[in-house]
Amino acid sequence: MPYGIGLTLDKRTGAGVRDLWRVFEEAGVGKTPGQLGVPPHVTFALFSSGKPDVLVSLVEALSVEDPSLKLVPFGAFLGEKHTLYLHAVLAPDLVQAHVTHIALARARGLSCDRLYTPGSIVFHCTLAVEIEDSDFLTGVEICRSHPEILEGCAETVELFEFFPAKQVHGREIVTGLK
Question: Looking at residue 117, what DSSP letter applies?
């Protein structure tokens, strides 16, 4: 069973993402994470399998002082069916937390998907997945017509089991910032 760890977005930033999801949904372009039962988030790690209790320990071990981030337009994962996303520019502390997180995963015998390891990861907030070739340009145009930069922070760290998405564990990100 695949698992993902995501950093859920604060309400204001999440609302901006949900607005974009609605545009994709109204246009019938792909499937949004909201349609798949996942809140607005930045993908932090992905595991093709793993023991839930070990993954929960990774969620609990995440420590970060500055959870701020920016979502900037836009990128695509191209494949049989495409994905469009916003790039997530993370505060340096979140990037360091990711490096520590992957080291802990490896120390606990987990293998993170290689596209989510330090030096390879494209931190992102998914807008739509499973986009057909015939709808891809419409999706790109949606992204181009909404070039706003969304600034905010991560509020919680969540462990999800896929698909359909089911939250396994989550907790607030506690920081020294107010």
Answer: S
* Percent of the chain whose predicted confidence (pLDDT) is above 90: 72
Token pair 């992204």: residue: 143
Report the distance separating Cα 85 and Cα 133, nearest Å: 16
**77-86 burial, b if ≥16 CB within 10 A, otherwise e?**
eeeeebbbbb
Three-state secondary structure call for residue 141: helix
Q: How many CB atoms lie within 10 A of CB 98?
A: 22
CA dist., res. 139 & res. 29, Å (int): 6
> Residue 120, Cβ neighbours under 10 Å: how many?
10
Q: What share of the chain is helix, strand, coil (3-state, %, to 5)?
A: 35, 35, 30
Amino acid at 144: R
pLDDT at 39 over 90: yes
3-state secondary structure of 132: coil
Structure tokens at 131: 């986009």
Q: What global pTM score does this model have?
A: 0.91
Q: pLDDT tens-digit profile of 44-81?
A: 999 987 788 899 999 998 888 899 999 999 999 999 99
User: Please, what are the domains in the chain?
Assistant: 3-172 (3.90.1140.10)
